Here is the input.
Amino acid sequence: MKKSMIILPVIIVYFVLNTSGFAESGYFMHNTESATYFPDLSEEVLAVQSPGSPEDGDIQFREALWPFGGKDDDVAAEKPKSSRKAFFLSLLVPGLGEAYVGSKRSLVFLGIEAASWWIYFTNNREGNDIESDYEQWAGKYWHYNDTTSSSGAELNYNYWGWLQRKYEIPVEINPTDYAAINDWLEKKTESGGFESVHNLPSTKTQQYYEMIGKYDQFVFGWEDVDNADLNPQLVDNLLWYENTVGVLSPLRIKYMKMRGDSNDKLDAAQRGIHIMLINRVLSAIDAGRLAYKHNKKLDSDLSMIRVRIVQKRILDNNVPMLMVSKEF
Here is the structure.
């Protein structure tokens, strides 16, 4: 509305100020009978128009006389964008909805998507590699009931030996009969006088690998506890099994560090997944919002009053005329 109010006075001033110029140039024809004046713009039109279609001449003539046109003429060529389509495109591939609307912001969301995938794959691969390493480490240096070490030397300690002495497990119970062992341990702890104990899984699950490093009761499974320099308190001690606190094992410490590094890498990979999901949601919302704003702006532009100058043939003369239009 403001544009229309401004344009009309400008047109009036434009032609009033140029009346003298038209008169001096001989652009007015005098009719002695009617005493009226009509601007003769035929020569001006011919000078402005170039060879081509009438539309081309009309555009050039209009641009020569009216310097405010051009912007609104491009609005009709734009098309409305579906907010729903933009939303689901970005939900599928972040940035795709923004590209559909025509926003360069799509590059930002695409970049975050690529980075999140890189974070996931890189850390997941490294975490799994370290996990495989610490499982091999445990298989080599932690002993449930082995009697020889990784180097072939005889072992004075293993986990089954500690468990059997600590909880007075009868020799009749087979070390691989986990059900019978767990039943016995439960009876002992319920009768009193015995500390509660963590039951080791019968298979090498994640819980198995966590327990043998985390809890002190499993320290006697690590083969380097049989080192007099590390654990002199165990030498010639008939009650060595009574206390697990303070028993040192560098092999166990290294194992726990490897597990920690693996878990850190796998956690970082999960953060990559979280970034990916958050980026998709934000991109989808942003694309839907951009499509909505695009359509609102398009509706606003199309509803504006358009003012154009066109040439019409009147009394054998090309006369510029003001055309005001509004689309609904």
Observations:
- The chain has two domains: 2-80+304-326, 123-269.
- Residues 1-76 have pLDDT under 50 and may be disordered.
- Residues 123-269 form one domain.
- DSSP finds eleven helices and four strands in the chain.
